[in-house]
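thought: fold this chain, then report.
action: predict
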Amino acid sequence: MALVACCTVLQVVGFQNSGKTTLVEKLIKRAKQFNLCVGSIKHHGHGGPPDSSSELKDSHRHQQAGANVAGVEGGGILQLTADSKDWSLKKLIDFYQFFSPDVIFVEGYKKEPYPKAVLIRSEEDLVLLSSLTNIICVISHVPLKKEVQRAYPIFHLQEDEHYLNFLLKEVGERR
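observation:
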């Protein structure tokens, strides 16, 4: 019997070093201020299983920020620890339901269909906007052209309060 996802899922996506882990930390801390039970899933997108590198450190940062359950997945290995040949994002979300989270923040898994906050470091990263689905906002390190601004809510990286309020409002509305 498959579990049915009964919590909000919000993805944070962007290229390497765009600030994904920092944003997830901030979201976790803000969600905890509202007494939400928070799960986080980090995708190790560099091939193979997670090692003692930054992915494990990043999931530890999620835990330190207040996540009730935090994990990293790559190469079929989920570091919680559990072993499976297929740790699809859907399977991970179903598994996390055991912990009864109110929200799951997902770092990575760009191609999955969940609502996304997209981090943009430079104009070269704008290619993401044409290849992703379900974008609810863009958080950018640089000013963006008007046509991009008309397509999505845009926040500058330094506008923490604005985009955190926006994203937590989205989480609340989707619950």
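thought: worth noting. Helices lie at 20-33, 54-65, 89-96, 127-131, 146-151, 160-174.
final: tokens above.
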